[in-house]
Amino acid sequence: METKKLDAINDYGNSVNRASEILKSGGIVALPTETVYGLAASAYSDSAIKAVFTAKGRPQDNPLIVHISSLDMLKDVACDIPDAAYKCAEKFWPGPFTMVLPKGDKIANSVSAGLNTVAVRYPSEKTICDIISLSGLPLAAPSANTSGRPSPTTAAHVIDDLDGKIDAVVIGGDCAVGVESTVVSLVGDCPRLLRPGAVTPEQLKKVLPDLVIDDAVLEQLREGEKAASPGMKYKHYAPKTEAFLVEGCSNSFVKFVNQKNDCAAICFEEEYYSINVPKISYGSKRNEGTLAQNVFSVLRDVDALDVKEVYIHAPSKDGVGLAVYNRLIRACAFKVVVL
Ligand code: AMP
Ligand code: MG
Prior knowledge:
CATH architecture of the largest domain: Alpha-Beta Complex
Order of helices and strands: EHEEHEHHEEHEHEEEHEEHEEHEHE
Largest sheet: 11 strands, mixed
Strand content: 15-25%
CATH class of the largest domain: Alpha Beta
Low-confidence stretches: none
Number of helices: 10
Bound molecules: adenosine monophosphate, magnesium ion
CATH superfamily of the largest domain: DHBP synthase
Number of domains: 2
Strand order of the largest sheet: 1-8-2-3-7-4-6-5-9-10-11
Distance between the termini: 49 Å
Structural class: alpha/beta
Mean pLDDT: 95
């Protein structure tokens, strides 16, 4: 199929109108959000949702996040909504924050992969909100990448992975946040952080004092263990080059990579000029926000260096650094070198 390129930078009105028409007729459209580019389909259409799973090659048991463009739409997606959800909505919506709630009847079962819960987000990016409002549809939208690859933070990343496999891509700017939303489940005994993102545990605990951080945020699931969030059990975000996460100070990291052969480094800008192997900086170690913006791009870029292994200097786990660390440890299939 030909993937239509809708240029929202130069022709915004026409692009959002056409995207909305395609979605209303059951098509699938990649579009920018503030976190990463998403691959959207009507959350009411079982066949459109199945097309999303097929285009991405996504495992059938990994549920999707449904996006809404007003608090009013929440009741079309979820039911039995607890007070805590409204408290979180007031604080973190619109924005990079997703809640898992009891699923409403109208949402296609394929969206939640057969679970009786649904993940919901009200994004802040204007393009997706305008398309939701114009179409009148809640949009299920996982990241617009081939399953397992780094998430897309530019339209070019989407085209690299999905050109010819989806109906259209809305070409907007680069994503401001760069990592996927924070996911919190509000259906168990206590609120549970399933995936870290730009809304940090420190911010969440002010609204949800009894928040629990799921073990799977930083640890690999044990054989046979059930995932609270099915997406966390898969190998994710991986470059084609074999990747290792390295923990240690700048001096040790530089020394470590400089004595290796046939390898590259993904490093901080502070150590860039001391490294003698092929290297890419993903920003200053003091600015976790910049590291988040760049992390998926550098994971894609490293393959062009054509080396056997890449060593990635681990960020701090402070603030949004926890989200960056969580993505990198998965990109490295939990292979960590401690210096
Ligand atoms: P993605 O859309 O690719 O950013 O992935 C969505 C993430 O949300 C995955 O990690 C899913 O496992 C998680 N998720 C979506 N729906 C649910 C749900 N109903 N319960 C738990 N986790 C969910
Ligand atoms: Mg994804």
